[in-house]
Design brief:
The complex is a heterodimer of chains A (about 350) and B (about 350). Chain A has a single domain, classed as ABC transporter involved in vitamin B12 uptake, BtuC (Orthogonal Bundle). Helices cover about 75% and strands about 5% of the residues of chain A. Chain A has twelve helices and four strands, in the order H-H-H-H-H-H-E-E-E-H-H-H-E-H-H-H. In chain A, helix 2 crosses helix 10 and helix 5 crosses helix 9. Chain A starts with 14 loop residues before the first helix and ends in a 12-residue tail after the last helix. In chain A, about 50% of the residues are buried. The chains are: A mainly alpha (about 350), B mainly alpha (about 350). Chain B: One of its GO terms (cellular component) is plasma membrane.
């Protein structure tokens, strides 16, 4: 036996290349810094930043399901907004039933009511996702044009059914007592609900990352995004995995709907399609199929929307489009593209 | 002669031919056949939407591009004309200049969107256009000093097109030919010309390349056609046609606002019309627009009757309430994507074979 084994050599990639990979991570702090310069006043900045983070994380909740479904199933669900709206309405109904709890001065009762509302909503929208996948989407796998059309149709039907069940008028959704009003820290007024939204959003992000990186299900999902056929060939039933991911995505949309409804305090059947514009921008910025990209994109959109709403209200929504254009010029596939252009 | 007008694109089914001729005759003699202002209103809407839907079909059916920004171009044409008439007074010159600006702006914007984002996949493009269109709608509602914001613009149109104008002293065939009728015929004529132009485009060599790009972009590239160039050209053409439909709408309604031109609902309507009529067939646009607008106008009355008849049954009566007509259209839409992917026209043509 020869002593000179050929060892594999792993070459360190050049620093510049590694930095370029991480560059999107720097965008959020950079934008925050920019916000500080524009607002000029640290306490205003703090208020806006928390508001931006809350908005961004709520959008992240809605967008993460969408982007995961796209990555895994190669399906873009234009009806995702319908789950958001339905979620908000179901949450409204549950919170109305529990109005004794939400009006109770005890914080614990308030949080319990919210927890129950969120759980019921997520279960309901998850089940709805099951039906949606089976009835609406299943016949059109692999046909993008038809997917777009059919899921749009599904959204119209869902919106109209909301009108049938809850009536055509906008409803007022009031926050639990403990989450109304704001804390004043220093000079900055921070709305309590926004902090809760930030907490839930961050917890969800951490949980999702954990599941995706450290569990077998996550491994299969990631592998499925990369190469579904291979996972199938290894003996896993990827169809069932698809369905579970779709249900989780729908449940997350429902969660996002409850939270967004409580944030806006008014819910309409069309709220889903309105928020979908922001969700799509986030998904595009993040790179279709990527949860991390989606997270960064959501934070960027939330922060930018709030800073510009303060500095120049008229250009607030247009600014997020501008952000999308700039990001796409820099990285045409989004920040962290997972799915190769097909 | 007739085949030349239709660019050799036969309807391809006797029943379809009959229906198309009926629609053409109905629209051509609408003021005489269906007296009253509501039918005329409906007929004018049908003419305008035939152009709008046909122009969208050029994009979605012939080129395979899903765009959600079509109402933006429609709105640009309408707002251009509206602004021309508001700022320049009620003259044809002002309307023409405004229309020209609107249509050119639509073309430029379509060119920018096309060059910028048509390289990406279909789904990506759909989302980008959705975002751009909604940003445009927000912009229009924010710039209220120019566009009237949510209230939109009310303006006067040239006197020759208003009901106060009389062309002849005597009624013709029992109908007084007033400016409204003239205005209708202006819209009918322009819509007919635009529609025939679109038929001409899709049956030209250019149209065939579009189909090739739609069916297999890779192969089309391999033969030497730049797919992006053709897609961009189709986007620009269809945007200009949509803007011209917007011009007609602005002239007809004497009002332009976000709800009539830019709203997401109109976009959804256009999508429904294209799919129900049949994608990739210009005649589908005619059938789709006519069916849809007739349903929109008259189905609700019918559903009101159904609601009355089922008043005792709680859920059912809510489901057939006139306001729910869109839901049934949504169901019809989903079903037609599954079972009649080629729409009414494709179905009729297949029936012949």
């Amino acid at each position: 036996m020869s002593e000179t084994l050929i060892r594999p050599r792993i070459e360190a990639r050049p620093l510049a290349e590694r930095l370029a990979d991480k560059a999107p991570l720097l965008l959020v702090p950079l934008l925050m810094l920019g916000g500080l310069v524009v607002t000029g006043n640290p306490s205003t900045w703090a208020t806006l930043t928390v508001a931006g983070l809350a908005m961004g994380l709520m959008i992240f909740i809605m967008a993460s399901g969408l982007t995961l479904v796209f990555g895994l199933m190669d399906i873009i669900n234009f009806g995702h907004g319908a789950f958001v709206a339905v979620g908000a309405f179901i949450g409204f109904t549950v919170l109305t039933w529990l109005s004794g709890w939400t009006a109770h001065p005890s914080v614990l009762m308030n949080l319990a009511a919210m927890l129950i509302a969120i759980t019921v909503t997520m279960l309901a929208t998850g089940l709805m996702g099951y039906g949606f996948e089976k009835v609406i989407i299943k016949p059109v796998y692999g046909q993008h044009l038809k997917q777009i059309l059919v899921t749009m149709g599904g959204m119209i039907i869902a919106q109209q059914l909301i009108h049938v069940v809850w009536g055509p008028d906008a409803l007022h959704l009031s926050r639990p007592l403990a989450l109304q009003g704001s804390w004043v820290i220093g000079d900055a007024a921070i709305e309590k609900y926004r902090l809760v939204a930030v907490g839930i959003g961050l917890a969800l992000f951490v949980a999702m990352r954990h599941v995706l990186k450290h569990t077998k299900v996550g491994l299969l999902v990631r592998a499925g995004v990369e190469n579904g056929e291979m996972v199938e060939a290894l003996g896993y039933r990827i169809r069932r995995l698809f369905l579970v991911v779709f249900m989780v995505g729908s449940a997350l949309a429902g969660l996002g709907g409850v939270m967004w409804g409580l944030y806006q305090e008014t819910i309409t059947a069309h709220m889903g399609s309105e928020i979908m514009v922001l969700v799509f921008i986030v998904v595009i910025i993040g790179g279709l199929g990527s949860v991390e990209g989606c997270f960064i994109g959501a934070l960027l959109v939330g922060l930018l929307a709030n800073y510009t709403a303060f500095a120049a209200p008229k250009v607030a929504l247009v600014s997020t489009i501008g952000l999308m254009v700039v990001v796409l010029m820099w990285r045409p596939q989004g920040l962290y593209p997972v799915v190769k252009a097909k | 002669m007739l085949m030349k007008l239709l660019s050799g694109d036969r309807p391809g089914s006797p029943l379809l031919t009959v229906v198309l001729v009926l629609i053409l005759v109905g629209l051509a003699f609408a003021p005489f056949l269906f007296p009253g202002s509501k039918p005329l209103e409906t007929a004018a809407r049908i003419c305008i939407f035939i152009v709008l839907v046909a122009s969208y079909d050029l994009l979605i059916g012939y080129t395979g591009i899903v765009s959600f920004a079509h109402t933006m171009f429609f709105g640009l044409g309408a707002y251009g004309t509206a602004l021309g008439l508001t700022l320049g007074g009620a003259s044809f010159a002002a309307a023409g200049l405004g229309a020209l600006c609107g249509v050119s702006l639509a073309a430029l914007l379509a060119l920018a969107i096309g060059l910028f984002s048509l390289r990406v996949k279909a789904i990506f493009f759909a989302m980008v256009t959705l975002a751009i269109a909604s940003a445009f709608a927000v912009l229009v509602s924010q710039l209220s000093f120019l566009t009237g914001g949510e209230d939109g613009l009310n303006y006067r149109i040239p006197r020759e097109l208003t009901p106060a104008f009389r062309l002849f002293d005597e009624p013709v065939l029992g109908l007084r030919i007033d400016g409204k009728v003239l205005s209708y015929y202006l819209i009918f004529g322009v819509a007919l010309v635009l529609f025939l132009a679109l038929v001409r485009i899709v049956n030209s060599p250019f149209g065939r390349v579009l189909k090739a790009v739609r069916d297999n972009g890779f192969r089309a590239e391999a033969i030497g056609y730049k797919a992006v160039h053709y897609r961009t050209a189709a986007t620009v053409l269809s945007a200009m046609m949509a803007a011209m439909a917007g011009v007609l709408l602005a002239l007809w309604l004497r009002y332009t606002g976000p709800a009539t031109t830019l709203s997401m609902e109109i976009m959804v309507d256009i999508l429904l019309m294209v799919v129900i009529g049949g994608m990739g067939t210009m005649y589908g646009a005619v059938i789709g627009a006519t069916l849809f607008i007739l349903a929109q106008t008259y189905l609700q009355a019918l559903m009101g009757l159904a609601e009355g008849a089922t008043a005792g049954i709680p859920l059912l009566s809510a489901l057939v309430a006139p306001d729910r007509w869109l839901m049934w259209l949504g169901v019809l839409f989903v079903l037609s994507v599954y079972f009649f992917p080629t729409g009414v026209v494709g179905r009729l043509r297949a029936g012949r074979a």
